[in-house]
């Protein structure tokens, strides 16, 4: 089953503000022959928490750079709050946490945040920012003596300071330990509950699944899915079937290879796990083949499996197109 942006779309915006925070209109960005971003159109609405997912090199950072006016599109347009990204940033409407960019050294955390407040168009209370980000205990530490995870938390504090309308985070939890991540997402939820729009790129799919109310999947520069995590999981069309087989039931495991709709099959000890695109047919076939499955469970797959399926389908579709083009060319040359 192939999944298109049109199929997985729209529903994520239910109940959200109808205004426009950001808009990409037919945006492409090429670096020489590399099509880093390829004809992306999308709108972010007020109050959405949006996860931006994609394999390495998919075009997430390039898209974020264009959203923030750090790079110009090769074609198409990007607007923030109906105007230019640069203007929105000058107006203090955007809080940002990027992957790169060091913090100012030789100052204490409190001094750094005070300095950032002094130059921020909206200004803010330093103690409030420290408290909100949960880093009050780091206030008197030297910035260049922070651990990687602590530095991430300070960068996050700067991104959330200033009551901006949009917070953009590029892989914000990289380098954070489990408890720091939990604390981080608790703060993020509060930010989203306060009505701020949050866009974050991540490779941690379980974070996207539990935090985001809208998920964008980019692959090879194209937007290939846009919906809630539940919609994307459902559209991947997969169910997970698991059961145990006892040796005394005398099952011939090779018969499992003939079960229809099997996307992946894993037999470990007596436990069988199947990812299936047609769980009903698969379960019926398992019984028909004479198996006696114990503790049979059919559940939905996680966002990670859905992500692998959707990006894999896109790769297969691209290969088919390339094969067709080669065949057409060969035919043309033969004429
Ligand atoms: N300045 C540049 N010059 C040339 N190619 C670039 C440049 N910046 C990015 N690219 C290429 O554009 C593509 C998209 O890169 P991008 O950094 O946007 O991906 P990403 O989705 O953020 O990846 P990751 O998850 O690895 O951070 C990649 O093929 C990358 O090599």
Automatic annotation (TrEMBL):
Keyword Nucleotide-binding attached: yes
Pfam families: ABC_tran
Family matches, as CDD domains: ABC_DR_subfamily_A
GO-annotated molecular function: ATP binding
Keyword Transport: yes
Membrane topology term: Peripheral membrane protein
Signal peptide residue numbers: none
Gene3D superfamilies xref list: P-loop containing nucleotide triphosphate hydrolases (3.40.50.300)
UniProt name for this protein: ABC transporter ATP-binding protein
Chain ranges of the ABC transporter domain: 22-245
Cell location: Cell membrane
Keywords of this entry: Antibiotic resistance, ATP-binding, Nucleotide-binding, Transport
